[in-house]
Amino acid sequence: MLVLNSSMIPHIRGFKLDTRKNNNTHYGYLFYRYVKLPFASKKYQTRVVRIWVPKNFDINKKYGVLYMSDGQNAVDENLSAYGEWDMEDHFKKLEKEGYHQFIIVGIDCPKNSKERTLEYLPGPCSTFRFSYLKKYHGNLFADYVANELVPFINERINVDYDRVGFCGSSMGGLISFYICSKYPEIFKFCISFSPAFFFFSKKHIREQFYSPNWTKPCNKYVFFIGGGDDLERHLRPNTDYMVSLLKENGFDDSNLLYMIDETRIHHESTWSDFVEPALRFTIK
Fold first, then answer.
1. Are 166 and 67 in contact (CB under 8 A)?
2. What pLDDT is stored for residue 179 in this prediction?
């Protein structure tokens, strides 16, 4: 449980401190505010944006910012139905190693799985198995993040603009790739774990969907794929393909990291175990 000392608690304009009795954030402070996403279905338009800051947060100091999809999974298992990434513990460890300090901005996903899929799907599906999905909001979600949320955060945090990235897994990994590739002037690195590229055919990926963005990619990409369950195995072929396309476009070991562990399953505990090497690669 997070122990609060009122004399040391920072203040972030427009956000409230998370004072839940079951707050399980191990290090630092968690803040929140409610926002409306007008493109979402009416029932799911009201959403929570959460900010995590390190314990010694100083409003006058510059911080890197890691934006995350599925923000309820970032730092507190009591907010998540599936598990957490333990991001506060990872950043605490990196801080001790001398890495630049970061804050986390997480956007809660819709609690309905189909609504979450629509929110993180950035274009029409081109594979038969997902032909029943006739809508998508991912392009609108990306625009909301870049044009509304990022400026809102920049007005309240002293941001190191060279250290801003987006991170997510599964559908969140897909939208992470899309956001960073669409807005590389904002997002300098992308962490895309178990990305759901299988919504699109390889032809669609190459010729229609992502090719307009390759002329202006972000600085660094990190991908992870497991192989311990059917879902991870299904996700691998198109992730392999995306990595090969990035290599065709000039990426190499200096700015592209692809981690594979065929024993690991599609779960937050897996992604938590691999996020530290991803961060070391992207924020060094």
1. yes
2. 93
